[in-house]
Specification:
- The chain has 379 residues and is of the alpha/beta class.
- It has 12 helices and 15 strands.
- Helix 4 (147-166) packs parallel to helix 7.
- The longest helix is centred in the middle third of the chain and has 20 residues, at 147-166.
- The model is unreliable at 363-379 (pLDDT under 50).
Length: 379
């Protein structure tokens, strides 16, 4: 790709022609049925936002033990495929394009939610509590994954990727970020293994590489993206060697030829980000840190990342609160503020499908000019 700094410029992305360089980031919003099947409300939500250059749909678990929270999506049964097909059909009818993020929670799970003891690289529990259908409960000690568990989980990711294509997605994003299972293998404080999947960086990157390799073999590397979050400490993660870890991971992923690498909370001034950009030959999606949600702030942050070498810019909260975000940025119109952050997760249309477009607002939506709450700083 060339490097124009215009977020609204079109882009070629593998087999897809994107109308702009804006990506709707994956955001878990707990609107699925209890068994993980996507709902008609979700189809409405994503179709409202189909003007994004690309939508990466929220995390779907490839197996039952990988479930994190109540009412999140999954992709390991025929009903899951059928539910997601409703979503992709609605988005395609509205002119959009979709990838699906695949995520295994690892130690971020609970028997009260999934019915299973969580699996993780090592028996290190999540500090603090985990949200379940019965309220917040202390994290449980996960069971250390055996070699058979690792092989089975890799196979589950590949099978979920095949189901994603059956459900109408253009491809999948392997989630190796934000403290979930693959990131737990990468981080020194959650991976205390002494076998080939632990120890130095070369061992700790192995699981992510094997998952990406299997998924690419199943559906084609041009349909596979990978999400990473260098240095991010969310969910109790401490990598310990970020500066060495990610160059090693990028070097191992590069021969597999994934469609893109997606960097969470990308800082264009960070040496790690600059190293990743220099080492990664393909499409780079970058997700900025946004301390305020105004039209000018979003454009500045996005264009700064494009100028630093990103090819596409992923946005979360701006798309959540503004189904017509692309039009607002094009017109310089103010943005809807994100309403009560708890509405993001409680189910139903409130704070989900009821954000107005410009045409639906009689007097025009209000712009958020103050700093965003750190607790609601999702993508």
């Amino acid at each position: 790709m060339t490097q124009p700094t215009d977020l609204l410029a079109p882009a070629e992305f593998g087999r897809l022609s994107l109308p702009n360089r804006l990506v709707m980031a994956p955001m878990t919003r707990n609107r699925a049925a209890a068994d993980g099947t996507p709902t008609p409300l979700m189809a409405e939500y994503y179709a409202q936002r189909a003007t994004a250059g690309l939508i990466v749909a929220e995390a779907a678990t490839p197996n039952a033990v990988g479930q994190t929270y109540p009412d999140i999506t999954a992709l390991h049964t025929p009903s899951h495929v059928a539910g997601w097909r409703q979503v992709t059909d609605a988005v395609r009818d509205a002119g959009g394009r979709m990838f699906l993020q695949l995520q295994h929670g690892g130690r971020i799970g609970h028997p009260a939610t999934s019915g299973h003891t969580p699996l993780a690289p090592s028996p290190v529990p999540l500090p603090g509590t985990v949200f379940t259908a019965e309220g917040h409960q202390p994290g449980v000690v996960p069971r250390e994954m055996t070699a058979d568990d690792i092989r089975a989980t890799v196979a589950d990711f590949a099978a979920a990727a095949r189901r994603a294509l059956d459900a109408g997605f253009e491809g999948v994003e392997v989630h190796s970020a934000n403290g979930y299972l693959l990131h737990q293998f990468l981080a020194g404080n959650t991976n205390r293994r002494t076998d080939a999947y632990g120890g130095p960086a070369a061992g700790r990157i192995r699981f992510t590489v094997e998952v990406v390799e299997a998924v690419a073999a199943e559906i084609g590397a041009e349909r596979v993206g990978v999400r990473i979050s260098p240095g991010l400490t969310v969910n109790g993660i401490e990598e310990g060697d970020t500066e060495d870890l990610y160059p090693a991971l990028v070097a191992a992923l590069r021969p597999l030829g994934p469609a893109y690498l997606h960097v969470v909370y990308a800082d264009p001034d960070s040496p790690v980000f600059r190293r990743i950009r220099a080492d990664w030959p393909g499409t780079l999606i970058a997700n900025p840190v946004l301390n305020e949600l105004t039209t000018d702030a979003v454009r500045r942050a996005g264009e700064r990342l494009l100028a630093a070498g990103a090819d596409l810019v992923a946005l979360g909260r701006p798309f959540l609160a503004n189904p017509d975000l692309v039009a607002r940025l094009r017109l310089g119109a103010p943005l809807n503020p994100v309403r009560d952050r708890y509405l993001m997760y409680v189910g139903g249309p409130d704070g989900y499908t009821d954000y107005p477009t410009l045409s639906e607002s009689e007097s025009g939506p209000a712009s958020s000019s103050g700093p965003a709450s750190s607790a609601s700083m999702v993508a």
